[in-house]
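[Help] Beginner question about ligand-bound structures

Sorry if this is basic. My supervisor gave me a protein sequence and a SMILES string for nicotinamide-adenine-dinucleotide and asked me to "get the holo structure". I don't really know what that means in practice or what format the answer should be in. Inputs are pasted below exactly as I got them.
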Amino acid sequence: MKDLTGKTAFVTGGASGIGLETARALAKRGARPILADIEGARAEAAAAELRAEGADAIGLQLNVAEEADWARAGDAAAKFGDVRILFSNAGVGGGSGKFEDYDTEVWRWAYAVNAHAHLYACRTFLGAMKAAEEPCHLALTSSMVAIVPPPISVAYISSKFATLGIAMALRNELADTQVGISVLCPGMSATNIVATTAKLRPGVGEQGAAAQTAQNMSGVLAGGMSAAKIGERVARAIEADEFFIFTHPEWKAMTEVQFAEILGAFGESADPGYRGDDIDGLIAANGAKRMNVAVGK
Ligand SMILES: NC(=O)c1ccc[n+]([C@@H]2O[C@H](COP(=O)([O-])OP(=O)(O)OC[C@H]3O[C@@H](n4cnc5c(N)ncnc54)[C@H](O)[C@@H]3O)[C@@H](O)[C@H]2O)c1
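Answer (accepted):
No worries, everyone starts somewhere. Holo just means with the ligand present. The predicted complex, written as structure tokens, is below.
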């Protein structure tokens, strides 16, 4: 999308952090942000802040994890404009502690917000974006931890892997459309995510070592990259139609180690007599022209 002027941009988690700063960067390029957030008053206050800077913006309350909420948000958005940029970004930490002790309610909540919500977002807006006779863009927020998982929350990491998987699979589906797609994979960013997570988390708050881990993470994130820089980078990636948005190049060395391990694990076929899967046929059947590049054609 080379020109963002006048394009309505629906941003989830838009009241704070990376969502708000991306909305601000899009607005600087002439886009019209809709800041959607579970914290409706904060979304409206953030939109007022953008309007004071000259943007045409509104805020609205939306719990991305509640499919029923999306119909209301879709109607409110339609009154403001036809959504041409969708940034499905809202996310929460998954809580920590031993996997076998995970609270299943917290697990479901983390997946609902971090992964399932992308489906609801696309059910609300993607059909019309595909049908629009103009370039559109969908961006999803995953994380660097979906490429290189550090020893933190299994719920958070795996739900961010799900987001990466959704983006990679959808990329094939959108290959022949005017809808560009990006997946944002940031490293540490100084946002409110630890406090937001503590506030929104279902059930009792984290206790003992898990509470300490959250506290430590808060300290680590406080020194992280500014969300404003990440927001600018996302806006540039949307303009340039880039798929992977990597904001923290210091993770590249770990990524190389991770992929070297994966590539190194390939060995002899489990059945040396087997002719091998028809990779070319699979690619052709899925119409994913882009994959031809990936397999070195
Ligand atoms: N901060 C980081 O270091 C970091 C790193 C990698 C990825 N991310 C991802 O970036 C995204 C944005 O997070 P952030 O760091 O800007 O945090 P943030 O807490 O500052 O902003 C997230 C916003 O999402 C909203 N939100 C949470 N649950 C919601 C729900 N159910 N429905 C609607 N809105 C909801 C919150 O109210 C908040 O305003 C998340 O997906 C997060 O996982 C963050």
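A couple of things worth pointing out: Strands lie at 8-12, 32-37, 58-61, 83-88, 136-141, 179-185, 244-246. The pocket of nicotinamide-adenine-dinucleotide is lined by residues 12-13, 15-19, 37-39, 62-65, 89-92, 113, 141, 143, 186, 188-189, 191-193, 196, 200, 221, 224, 227 (CB under 6 Å). Feel free to follow up in the thread.
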